[in-house]
Design a protein that fits this description.
Layout (H helix, E strand, L loop, with lengths): L1 E5 L7 E4 L14 E8 L4 E11 L4 E4 L10 E10 L5 E4 L5 E6 L4
Parallel strand pairs: 1-8
Antiparallel strand pairs: 2-5, 3-4, 3-6, 4-5, 6-7, 6-8
Length: 106
């Protein structure tokens, strides 16, 4: 999965359906979700709460703030879920989401 946004934009949000290794959407009822994004050197650029928009369907969303997209480049992101029982699972299960922030013209 890849996501592209223009530098300094805050829309659209990053949305994903979180699925287990069998490809089935996970139940996020009562879970909390964080969005993590790092640059290519491994520096954390975003570490913030994401929203669960469909508990049963496993759908989450991260709404950008202006500082998140102020630097053009390629980044890697993931969603980290903490279930009500305290266990933690990170999505995607393999690899990460490539985030491309395209330099604005002005």
């Amino acid at each position: 999965m890849a996501f592209t946004i223009k530098q300094n934009d805050t829309a659209p949000s990053v949305e994903a359906v979180l699925k287990n290794s069998a490809g089935i959407a996970v139940d996020l009822t009562g879970a909390t979700v964080n969005f993590h994004m790092k640059d290519l050197s491994g520096t954390v650029v975003v570490d913030a709460a994401a929203s669960v928009t469909d508990d049963i369907g496993g759908t989450v969303q991260y709404d950008w703030v202006s500082a998140d997209t102020d630097t053009a480049g390629t980044f890697y992101a993931e969603f980290e879920v903490e279930y009500p029982d305290g266990t933690i699972e990170t999505f995607p299960n393999t690899g990460s989401v490539a985030v491309n922030i395209v330099k604005e013209l002005n």
